[in-house]
Automatic annotation (TrEMBL):
InterPro entries: Ribosomal_bL9/RNase_H1_N (IPR009027), RNase_H1_N (IPR011320), RNase_H1_N_sf (IPR037056)
Entry-linked Pfam families: Cauli_VI (PF01693)
Source lineage: Eukaryota, Viridiplantae, Streptophyta, Embryophyta, Tracheophyta
Name of protein: Proton pump-interactor 1-like
SUPFAM superfamilies: L9 N-domain-like (SSF55658)
Region (Disordered): 56-77
Native species: Dorcoceras hygrometricum
Domain (Ribonuclease H1 N-terminal) ranges: 4-46
């Protein structure tokens, strides 16, 4: 069985993580955290990229509203 990859969409530091230990520290105790596990890194990267693109397209860029800034630097892989 392959090693899982984890995506944190909303949490302390959104991104892609290679272990639950890394991902969980960004979601456990964080209200509104959203995360998902994937069987391989390619699926995780595709899902996170699509999420970021969707957030960027639907976000208005007003005082601190640029959500793409956290996502572009959030990948931990």
């Amino acid at each position: 069985m392959g090693k899982k990859t984890y995506v944190v969409y909303a949490g302390r530091e959104p991104g892609i993580y290679d272990s639950w230990g890394e991902a969980s520290s960004n979601v456990v105790g964080h209200k509104g955290a959203v995360h998902q596990s994937f069987k391989d890194g390619g699926q995780a990267e595709t899902a996170f990229t699509r999420y970021v693109e969707n957030q960027s397209a639907s976000t208005s860029f007003t005082s601190g509203g640029n959500k793409s800034s956290w996502a572009s630097s959030g990948s931990k892989k």
